[in-house]
Write a structure and sequence with these properties.
Blueprint: H1 3-18, H2 21-34, H3 37-56, H4 59-77, H5 80-106
């Protein structure tokens, strides 16, 4: 099978993903929060710090550092715009992870 067929199938699959309620909700929430640029920047800072914390912290320190991080941002996360966006983003990320897991299992990739 030529690679061009894989590329076309991938584009079709991406279009299917874009039609899901999960993806549409993510886009909707993202657009809502982007209407408040300062808040959106704070969300991006939260996301960056969360990513760095999870990827740069030694396993034995992770629980304590995550607990402190969550405490630091607890008030921030009470904002419905923030919480709705982060919830929608997490749902979309989990869907993409599930797709990746299924695809990897189907092609026998270790």
């Amino acid at each position: 099978m030529p690679d061009t067929q894989i590329e076309e199938a991938t584009k079709k699959f991406a279009a299917y993903i874009q039609q899901t309620d999960t993806y549409k909700e993510y886009l909707f929430q993202r657009e809502k929060i982007k209407k408040q640029p300062e808040l959106y920047e704070k969300v991006n800072e939260f996301r960056r710090r969360n990513f760095e914390l999870q990827n740069e912290t030694a396993d034995e320190e992770l629980f304590d550092r995550m607990e402190a991080f969550e405490h630091e941002y607890a008030k921030f996360r009470e904002n419905p715009l923030v919480e709705d966006f982060l919830r929608a983003e997490l749902s979309f990320c989990r869907m993409m992870q599930d797709i990746n897991t299924l695809l990897t299992a189907e092609i026998d990739f270790e």
